[in-house]
Design a protein that fits this description.
This protein is of the alpha+beta class and 324 residues long. The chain is 33% helix and 27% strand. The protein has a five-stranded mixed sheet, with helices on both faces. Strands 8-15-14-13 form a four-stranded mixed sheet, with helices on both faces. A two-stranded antiparallel sheet has the order 2-3. A hairpin with a 2-residue loop joins strand 10 and strand 11. Helix 3 crosses helix 4 and helix 7 packs parallel to helix 8. The longest helix is centred in the C-terminal third of the chain and has 23 residues. The two termini are 24 Å apart. The relative contact order is 0.20. It binds oxa(dethia)-CoA (UT7). Oxa(dethia)-CoA (UT7) binds next to helix 2, helix 6 and helix 7.
């Protein structure tokens, strides 16, 4: 029997509301900061912030609908939904189950969430690929969706300026030829303290601090160290040289992390998709958002070789190498 491969056949994304500029955010929350500090240290100038009542499943629905339309299929054709999110609608049911309901799928295939913070989309893509390649599923919807604004402490200038809300989605299908060439995911839970939201629901209350806290410099150092390594791991597994990469699509955390990883890999800046300036860090949504922007702007074309990489709380990190 010939091997089953897996490829992306459609992408979609969604950003809520109007872009909020650095100066606007600073004024809104009376932060001791400046547009210049934020732009120079992070590359961020704008982010989108969801209105009250807008949920991760709502953002996921918009992105998923666009990906389904781009793939030329219908929601009923989807037999697997994986949503990567750290800002789910509820403790349970999963955001994926709520998304499945919003899409009108009844008696469908598996739907579940993946929690790997900013590496969540790479984790979800890796899992979906394995379901499809095993032959158990034919068409997967993989989404990264976040309302990170809900877990930000607006009095902490060191974190609240960095993040934004949004969602990105892809449709993956079984195929005769690859597709996804290689994936790699890793974690080291001993770094759980340097980026966390250490709150939980118990006894009808929130216990602990339900806001994002981060040791920015420790995260920065960790990210720069692991991203190039995991990118090389998938390049080697897929037998592709860095020079053959048409587009590097990194998790959009900080322009300096993006640039430093690209440089280490020998990938020139003009081959890197950068959205951090306009989106901020949208955690699990950032890679599929950047992918969709690249596709819809006409820069990323069918047949291109793409390298996706990300790192996030946990700590978790991963990369995916694919032909579109
Ligand atoms: O998805 C992964 C998520 N996280 C990341 O990728 C973040 C990785 N880390 C970073 O991007 C950077 O570490 C930051 C952008 C968060 C911070 O940049 P930095 O160059 O590491 O700054 P720092 O933390 O060393 O802070 C330098 C100074 C401090 O003031 P003092 O102690 O020198 O007086 C901070 O209090 O900058 C201050 N500062 C700010 N000043 C103006 C921190 N945030 C701000 C701000 N505006 N928003």
């Amino acid at each position: 029997m010939s091997q089953i491969h897996c490829r992306i056949v459609g992408t979609g994304s969604y950003l809520p509301g109007e872009p909020v500029g650095n100066d606007q955010l600073i004024a809104r929350h009376q932060l001791e900061s400046s547009d210049q500090w934020i732009a120079e240290r992070t590359g961020i100038r704008f982010r989108h912030l969801a209105d009250d009542g807008v949920s991760a499943s709502g953002l996921a629905f918009e992105a998923a609908s666009r990906a389904i339309a781009a793939a030329g299929c219908t929601a009923a054709d989807i037999d697997l939904i994986i949503v990567a999110t750290s800002t789910p609608d509820y403790v349970f049911p999963s955001t994926a189950a709520l998304l499945q309901d919003k899409l009108g799928i009844r008696n469908g295939g598996a739907a579940f969430d993946v929690q790997a913070v900013c590496s969540g989309f790479i984790y979800a893509l890796t899992i979906a690929e394995k379901f499809i390649r095993s032959g158990s599923n034919k068409r997967a919807l993989v989404v990264g969706a976040e309302v990170f604004s809900r877990i930000l402490d607006w009095s902490d200038r060191g974190t609240c300026v960095l993040f934004g809300d949004g969602a990105g989605a892809v449709i993956l299908e079984a195929a005769d030829a690859a597709g996804i060439l290689a994936t790699a995911v890793h974690a080291d839970g001993s770094y759980n303290q340097i980026l966390s939201v250490p709150g939980q629901v118990g006894g009808g209350e929130v216990i602990g601090r339900p806001f994002l806290q981060m040791d920015g410099q420790a995260v920065f150092k960790f990210a720069v160290k692991v991203l190039a390594d995991v990118a090389r791991e998938v390049l080697s597994a897929g037998n592709i040289a860095a020079e053959e990469i048409d587009w590097l699509i990194p998790h959009q955390a900080n322009i300096r992390i993006l640039q430093s990883t690209a440089k280490k890999l020998g990938i020139p800046p003009e081959k890197v998709i950068v959205t951090v300036e306009r989106h901020g860090n949208t955690s699990a949504a950032s890679i599929p958002l950047a992918l969709d922007e690249g596709v819809r702007s006409g820069r990323i074309k069918r047949g291109d070789t793409l390298l996706l990489e990300g790192v996030g709380g946990g700590f978790t990190w991963g990369a995916a190498l694919l032909k579109l």
